[in-house]
Structures are given as C-alpha cells and as structure tokens.
Amino acid sequence: MEVAISESWKVVLNEEFEKSYFKNLVEFVKGEYKNNTCYPQGSKIFEAFNVCPFEEVKVVIIGQDPYHGPKQAHGLCFSVNDGIAHPPSLVNIFKEQEADLSKPYPVSGNLTHWAQQGVLLLNATLTVRAGEAGSHQGKGWERFTDTVIQKISDQKADVVFLLWGGFAKKKQKLINRDKHHILESGHPSPLSANRGYWFGNKHFSKTNTILKQLEKNTIDW
C-alpha cells in the first residue's frame, strides 16, 4: 500500500512515514485489506488529506472510526457516499445545521464540499474491518492522526477545531489554545444528542462568525 497522500501533506508528515510504527501500521493494513473486507476502499484511506490540502485547512472536525457498513465510508469523518442512507449521527448533524442556519436538510450525506472549502474531516482511525467497529484501533492510526493535529496546531494559526463528544475533547491537549479556536459540544450520536448535549450548539454559525472576524472566507455548510 503506497501512501497516496497529497504533496502538501507529504511535506508536513514525511518524517512520520519513515517511523517504524507507521511502517508496521502499513503492513497491518495491507494484511487486513488482503484477507478481509475493509473500509474505506484503499484509494480513499487518505481522502480527507487529498481533498483538503494542508495550506487550506481552516476548520478541523475529529471523528473516531470510519463507518463499517457497505459503501458508506469514503475517507471523510461523518460523511457517506452519495445515495447512501444517512447514519444517525449524520442525521443529527444535518438537523443542527438546518436549525442553526435555516438551510434545508441535505439530500446527500457526502461532505466533500465541506472538505473542499478547508474543513479537514479527520477520523482518529482511518480504516476498519467490515462489520467490526473499532477493529483497527490501537494499531498506530491514533498516533499518526494525533501527529496531524499537533502539526496543524504548531504550523498554522487561527484554525477552528470542532470537538464533538468525549473522544474528540481529549484531543485538546494537542492544540495550542493561544493561537487556535476550540468549540466543544456533545457528540451528535442519538445517545448524546437526545440527552441535550448536541442540539443547539450552533457550531456552524459560530465557526463562520470566527472566520469572518479573521477575514477568511466562511464555510458554505
């Protein structure tokens, strides 16, 4: 498995690709894809980076694992391919977007248009075995994606980090609050959202308010 990642990220992450843990991770992933059905398809593993170059990153949303059902995952956290039913968390993301921005509920669950505007949709673990949530956790992906967050924090300024749920909030330690902006809420999953920890967070409008203040282009969510 060649690391098919955009040039802008290659420059930033080059050292990481040479580390022994990453080489071990590549061998693990190669074996998993050879012997099992895994998601997303190999060419889409680094899709989040390829659609959103390093220099374009304005907003970061952190997910945990790719979806593990057929045809869902395509390398962007919370996003699904066109024509695929919206998973429960994505339904709640769109409901909040609808309420916050008075926009109609989207037909497609594909969030590529967010990524193309500078929203890095980063899962902590980039691959998964079909039907087995969390099956590729603890193999090295988390170390890699933590480094991604750290590099953004160190080498950029005024990025808006949206930390949804306990898992994402733990990534705060990697982010320099003095030079970046952090918005937190509960997770959009039904369990959290139905307890009142998600709806009403207004993260979409709040993000755009911050971007306006920074004289950056806002996101057309």
From TrEMBL:
Gene3D superfamilies per UniProt: Uracil-DNA glycosylase-like domain
Active site, per annotation: 65 (proton acceptor)
One GO CC term, this protein: cytoplasm
GO annotation, biological process: base-excision repair, AP site formation via deaminated base removal
CDD domains: UDG-F1-like
UniProt-listed Enzyme Commission number(s): 3.2.2.27
PANTHER family for this protein: URACIL-DNA GLYCOSYLASE
NCBIfam families noted in UniProt: PRK05254.1-1, PRK05254.1-2, PRK05254.1-4, PRK05254.1-5, ung
Official protein name in the record: Uracil-DNA glycosylase
Organism from which the protein derives: Croceivirga radicis
Lineage: Bacteria, Pseudomonadati, Bacteroidota, Flavobacteriia, Flavobacteriales
